[in-house]
Amino acid sequence: MSAATGGADQKGLMDATYALHRHFYDFTRKFYLLGRDALIRGLNPPKGGTVLEVGCGTARNLIVAAKRFPQARFYGFDISEAMLETARASVEKNGLAERITLAQADAGAFDVQRLFGVERLDRVFMSYTLSMIPPWVEAIELGARALAPGGSLHIVDFGQYERLPGFAKRLHFKSLNDFHVFPRDTLPAVLKRVAEEQGLRLDFRSTLRGYVWSATLTRG
Questions:
Q1: How many Cβ atoms from other residues are within 10 Å of residue 194's Cβ?
Q2: If you write DSSP's letter for every residue of 97-118 in order, what string do you get?
Q3: C-alpha–C-alpha distance, residues 191 and 197, integer Å
Q4: 118 Rama class: left (phi>0) / alpha (psi -120 to 50) / beta
Q5: What's the mean pLDDT when you consider all of the chain?
Q6: Class of residue 111 by CB neighbours under 10 A (exposed 0-12, middle 13-18, buried 19+)
Q7: Strand 147-158 to strand 121-127: parallel, antiparallel, or no bridges (unpaired)?
Q8: If you average pLDDT over residues 180-194, what whole number do you get?
């Protein structure tokens, strides 16, 4: 299967999954997508800086970030046109259409220059995205490669519940899998490899007894 075919298949899957669910996605997710707002607070982009969200969904995170950091310019893309339809409406409703630019793209094969006319980014973030996309390793590699000097890639996602009871992991992972969400057990190893290959500094943390894994890759 070619990358283009795989991307088309994933787009169709996500459009079908969220055609209806996108309308109440943000309300339901706030109860268990923990650590998103902490990630946003930690972005702290420079004045006039550029920030990209990979897999922006409904643009909830971009809107929160744009309001918190009015000096920065924000970009986001998603593979699902259904999600982007909701995202564009939300951005417009919040009066942020001139500061948030959205596009349709595959996280495993994106080019920020082609999508947004931006050569390098000061901040890239991925909030509960890697567990939803098949080309998650490629997404990390491309996000890191797009960083400007001094830039950073911020990640938060489901961990492996390593300090929680086994039944809690089995039950929650089953519910996640039903929505095509698969927490990545090899995420720490992949981040370490990307950091070494691209000369980045890695900060990795497991919190809430392993419910949340978060990481920052920083270019010196």
A1: 19
A2: TTTEEEEE--TTS--HHHHHS-
A3: 10
A4: beta
A5: 88
A6: exposed
A7: parallel
A8: 96
